[in-house]
Amino acid sequence: MGTNIRKMSSLSLRRRVPDNNLNNVPPTRAYKELQLHMSVKIRLKRIGAKKRPFYRIVVANSTAARNGRFIEVIGTYDPCVDPPAVRLDDEKALRWLGHGAQPSDTARALLKKQGILDRFTAVKEAHRQAQQTTNG
Asked: For the chain, which domains are there?
């Protein structure tokens, strides 16, 4: 009898929306605020075996889990070899940095080591200089 009561209460708590109106339901305010503050991160995703770390450098939503959903793979990092091996697609990394993706601390160090972060700041500064000369 106790299981029936639980089933009844869970059914009565569900919000009933007609199937044809599902597309017209406005998102909640909390969802809108979450959508506004979401950012894209460049970070590491661990895919190695136990005690043998190997990482993919990925672009992911900041709210996604570390090994969860990601947008795009931009490189790999293998800390087990000597020296640690880093493979990065420069074009993809620069494109995502240009779109405003924020690297994590480790990803920032790897990007800096590869010289991608320096190239990005140089391009950004050149763009800023060009805008100042056209405007002023």
From this structure: 38-135 (3.30.1320.10)
